[in-house]
Amino acid sequence: MRTESDKIVLFDGVCGLCNAWVNFLIRFDLGNRLLFSPLQGDFAKENFPQAAQSLDSIVFIDRKKVYYKSGAALRILASLGGIWTMAWVLLCIPFFLRDPVYLFLARFRYQLFGKRKSCRVPAVEERSRFID
Predict the structure, then answer these.
(1) Per-residue model confidence as pLDDT tens digits over 118-129
(2) pLDDT, tens digit, for every residue of 1-17?
(3) What are the φ/ψ torsions at residue 59 (nearest 5 degrees)?
(4) Quick check: pTM over 0.85?
(5) Domain spans, the chain
């Protein structure tokens, strides 16, 4: 399993919005640079117990730096390269203005986008992209 130098996305595995986001990232991460792990999984519980317990933020680990909330989402998007690199521009907006929007979506994500009964099971072709 590659985890030392990779970019890792921790997400709420039962959230409909979060799973749609992961599907989007898999589709557009043409360089296969991103790895994924649900916050409910062993990797997140062992390495990021506070995030795994609260489930209110996506987490992005990039070169051993950890990002949360809107900062994580924008850095993940920018890491896709190409036109998505323009997401860096949005990081110029102060986090205290970005994060309330993120937290609003996070708070109502289950009501707006649904909730699964269990974490997603990656398709065979996706398994190499998932830590657990």
Answers:
(1) 887 888 888 999
(2) 565 558 999 999 999 99
(3) -125, 135
(4) yes
(5) 7-120
